[in-house]
Amino acid sequence: MVTALPTLGFVGLGHMGGAMVNRLLDAGYPVHGMSRTRERAEPLVARGLHWHETPRSVADAADVVLSSLPDDGALDTVASGSDGVLDGLTPDKIWVDLSTVSPAASTALAQRVRARNAAMLDARCRGAFRRSGPGR
């Protein structure tokens, strides 16, 4: 029996996020994503990333949404509003937040995700970009 890979969404395609998406594409996952500027994501699009203009459209397309953002403000921006990830979450979806944010921001986001009856995993990443590229 072959199980299909889940469709992943990734918001934040900077150094860390971009390196993670490269590894996910290498592994054969279908990945939808967006970042503040498309130009930065062009190498990923060339490798098979499905580009989206808003965080919500990424969430709409994905089974699991991952985010890799630099701070509390960036996380709140991609979560909020009619184009935010939260409006694209349904009870069958999971948000994995890898962002470098405060514990308070993670707790607040988890409460907002729970209010949508979706699941969240707080998996804050810290570390050097040079190690993320090779998948360490």
UniProtKB/TrEMBL annotation:
InterPro entries, per the entry: 3-OH-isobutyrate_DH-rel_CS, 6PGDH_NADP-bd, HIBADH-related_NP60_sf, NAD(P)-bd_dom_sf
Its GO biological process annotations read: organic acid catabolic process
**Highest taxon in the source lineage:** Bacteria
- Segments traversing the membrane: none
* A Pfam family it matches: NAD_binding_2
Name the SUPFAM superfamilies for this protein: NAD(P)-binding Rossmann-fold domains (SSF51735)
Where does the 6-phosphogluconate dehydrogenase NADP-binding domain lie?
8-123
Q: What is this protein called?
A: 6-phosphogluconate dehydrogenase-like protein
Which organism does this sequence originate in? Answer: Kribbella steppae
